[in-house]
Amino acid sequence: MPEELPQLGRETLHEWSTLSYPSLVKELCSLFIGPELIPRDDLNDLIDRAFSRFRHREVVHLSRLRNGLNVLELWHGVTYAFKDLSLCCTAQFLQYFLEKRKRHITVVVGTSGDTGSAAIESVQGAKNVDIIVLLPKGHCTKIQELQMTTVLRENVHVFGVEGNSDELDEPIKTVFADVAFVKKHNLMSLNSINWSRVLVQIAHHFFAYFRCAPSLDMHPLSPVEVVVPTGAAGNLAAGCIAQKMGLPIHLVVAVNSNDIIHRTIQWGDFSLSKAVKPTLASAMDIQVPYNMERIFWLLSGSDSQVIRALMEQFESTKSVSLPKELHSKPSPLLSGSRLCSQVPGGCAGCQADPG
Ligand SMILES: *Cc1c(COP(=O)(O)O)cnc(C)c1O
Question: Keywords on this record (predicted)?
Answer without folding.
Answer: Lyase, Pyridoxal phosphate
